[in-house]
Write a structure and sequence with these properties.
single chain; 339 residues; Tachylectin-2, Chain A; 4-stranded antiparallel beta sheet
Amino acid sequence: MRGFFCLFVSLFILVSCTKHQNVMKLQGDVWPDTKGNVINAHGGGILYHKGVYYLYGEFKGDSTYLLESVKTWECWRADAGGVSCYSSTDLMNWTFEGMALSVVSEDTTSDLHPSQVIERPKVIYNRYTKKFVMWMHIESPDYEKAHAGVAIADSPTGPFTYLGSFKPNGQDSRDQTIFKDDDGRAYQVYSSEWNKTMYVSLLNGDYTKPSGIFTRNFEGEYREAPAVFKSKGTYYMITSGCSGWDPNVALYATADSMLGEWTLKGKICTGKDADSTFYAQSTFVFPVTGKKQTFVAMFDRWNKTDLDDSRYIWLPITFHRDSLEIAWKEEWSTDFKMN
């Protein structure tokens, strides 16, 4: 019944699916899977593997509460439900594949206990080890832990085996993403030093630990929610400011290499509510397979007092000669013919 609440929140639903055109429309309703159930995959990321897109995200419990003991920000949270997985071949119809990483309800000391925090899961495939590797932000309820967690699986749908959590390169790891480059090298990108600095960390050969090689970026800029992609030899990173669950202005940055110098360029969103990033926050960018220079940006529109009912916005990225643009569209086509 959640679709009858928060009627002014926009998200994707399937409104047309034909042989020639698949239209996604943002119109303030829930996003259903192929069985009509609400998709529960917040802070998510996409893996494309053997013709199938896999969506991974935070499976949030259906009760949100304010942690009164935290005084520095509005610490609204929902019980951790693990990491969900959905699959699609057309970006329109998503099938629930189950829990890729399940919670551990019987062990109150586990990182995966429902009382803890599991955020921003991302999965990449290691063609050398034949393993699917998941990285995520692991937190204590008061957000003081600031660890990165790692899990591996033999299948994209899991089940993933949890390897544990740690502070990569000896520093805090909060909002994070994973990026695999064309040469097979993989990187964790994460907000650190109480969000003052963004780290780009080269991973080891099996993608389960830092290699020890990293860079510090945007020092003192307080950026979070990184989403990284590459186009025509240039690396791009979309980030948000730090304002808790409340929206702010998204910026983008560029670099000539992942471990090179990252330069903030400015705003990326245009159109209605662009200065609040459409009342949403970046989580991931993925290329559309078979479409040149075609990327989709994923955002979460957080509902801080009912986190389970947070919604999703996905929009295509437009490349200009000297800039990027994510324009607000009430609807757009997965054939990438703008409406």
